[in-house]
Specification:
binds fe (ii) ion; five-stranded antiparallel β-sheet; 303 residues; globular; single chain; alpha+beta; Jelly Rolls; six-stranded antiparallel β-sheet; 2 domains
């Protein structure tokens, strides 16, 4: 596997963000700055990305070529190339889950096994467009993760652009709150809507912006969270006090059990697994202390 840090892999992928998407010029310039600061891009190329930063439609490649500079290399965009990258990521997720212990882990790994055993398949779905939560927060989460789990961080960085990242809009906005509504994104990897199909099983990656409160809710699907960053706050009953958990401590939510997540100073990045009843909707559970919890800031060292 490529040994380049995940943050640089992600930056190289961001240079290839689709032209014309709102904010994509700024995202390419930020990625170019990351590479420049790491000594992986010269100042002439950086200047071209700076010039193009307010111009979302402008392709920097012809300007780079005119200056005698190399354009960023595109990864294999064929369906099979994307399928192989996803397969690598799923294998890393399974290896990670195997390192944990606790309820639900065996069930989630059992649901993943058919996808791991199958030959790499062309993906069922095209990758989605840009997602602002991903662009703003995945880099910081992966930088933290790669200190302890470099292969997993690299596999997520390489595959992120292949996945369809969804900022879920089905919760009533006044119940779930605008911080969460606009501050999260998830990508299904295996499931009914995923690039690899499973009828009643879901495995994916979930990202929430720092300090956001994911208010109390429940759903019929049993759910595993395997948080790759931390610390974050949790509770499993409305109005209960918060419990702070570090990264790499899995959380299992049995069917219809209430749960709430308060994101800490780092973006919340986790592998999630739903083992059945994945099509049944989640429901927000009212609690009286959301205003204080939304203002709360968890300290980095609190774990
Ligand atoms: Fe949940």
């Amino acid at each position: 596997m490529n040994r380049e840090p995940a943050s640089l892999i992600l930056a190289r992928q961001t240079l290839l963000a689709a032209l014309g998407l709102a904010g994509s010029g700024r995202q390419r310039y930020a990625a170019a700055m990351t590479l420049f600061n790491a000594g992986k891009m010269d100042d002439q190329a950086l200047e071209i990305y700076r010039i193009c930063s307010p111009l979302d439609q402008e392709d920097p490649a012809p300007l780079l070529a005119a200056a005698g500079l190399a354009a960023p290399a595109h990864p294999d965009e064929s369906d099979l190339g994307r399928g192989l990258r996803l397969k690598t990521l799923l294998a890393e997720c399974d290896r990670y889950l195997a390192s944990l212990s606790g309820p639900g882990i065996a069930e989630v790994r059992a649901g993943l096994a058919p996808s791991l055993a199958a030959r790499a398949e062309p993906l069922l779905r095209p990758s989605g467009g840009a997602n602002v939560v991903l662009a703003d927060h995945l880099g910081a989460a992966l930088t933290a993760l790669e200190a302890t789990h470099p292969e997993l961080a690299q596999a997520i960085a390489i595959t992120a652009a292949d996945l369809e990242w969804i900022t879920y809009g089905e919760y009533p906005p006044d119940e779930i709150g605008t911080d969460f509504l606009t501050g999260h994104a998830y990508a299904e990897m295996v499931g009914p809507e995923g690039p690899l199909f499973a009828e009643d099983y879901d495995l994916g990656i979930f990202l929430i912006a720092p300090d956001v409160l994911y208010r109390d809710h429940h759903h019929p699907a049993p759910e595993l969270y395997a948080p790759l960053t931390g610390p974050h706050g949790w509770r499993f009953g409305q109005n209960d006090p918060l419990t702070i958990k570090p990264a790499h401590v899995p959380v299992w939510n049995p069917p219809n059990a209430p749960h709430m997540t308060k994101v800490g100073p780092l973006p919340f990045l986790c592998i999630f697994g739903w083992t059945k009843d994945v099509q049944l909707p989640a429901k927000v559970l009212p609690a009286g202390d959301w205003p204080e919890l939304e203002k709360l800031r968890i300290a980095p060292e609190q774990s």
